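Usage

Read records sequentially. Each one opens with the input sequence:
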Amino acid sequence: RYLLWSTLYSFLIPLTGTISLFDALVLFAIFFRYAASAMRSDSEEVQLVGPAALIDREFGESGRRLWALAMFAYAGYAILISAEPFADGLVEVGRTYDFDEFLLVQWVAPLASESPEFLIAILFALRGRGSVGIGALISSKVNQWTLLVGAIPIAFCLSAGSWTGLPLDERQTEELILTSTQSLLATILVIDLRFSRGEAVLLALLFGGQFLFTSTEVRYVFIAAYLAICVALLVLDPERRQLLWRLIVADPANGPGAPHSGP
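and closes with the structure output:
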């Protein structure tokens, strides 16, 4: 639901030509509602495995939590000192080998930063818990669309000393729309809580095909293809159409698919 909300809102951002502080406010509101809903939801007792189980045996529950906080802080520090050199290195690679620098920063960098999430999802799938793996990826995507995108105009305003937000040029607008259509298609594909091999291959082919064409015209063709597939899925599958409508209008407090109540 929250991935769908943030995805649909992302289509409005290019209309203004800027990612504003108002956009940040809306996206943060979606995230905090998502977090509140997650805290209220039923959760099963976690069975610790691997390093987590070892740390728990050696140091107990409190010690395990301290270790988790310490590793979280270390990971944040590692990202802080390596993010800028990594991005500069990608740009330099693009210049050296005559590859589109924007695509390297836009797509390769996120693939590297999100590889832990992919590995976690793969491990869940290998253990026969594919739905949990998909859930982890969806949660990650919600965080990206809300916290990450919402933080961009705040960081820009702080560095620029103005309140105008981050202006989008033609290339950035194109990539934002492309990302939004990708997210919409992925949401519609998993909206029935099933993700087939054919659907995975379809997404992989479309995603990989983008790297073969860097011109704006062709990338708008990909955008049209994503939207056409979305429309076809909703027209041909009444169940997906009904689930999509429920996710848009349902009240999270009443559970999935509940009718919307209140203003």
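Summary fields computed downstream for this record:
- The longest strand covers residues 18-19.
- Residues 253-263 have pLDDT under 50 and may be disordered.
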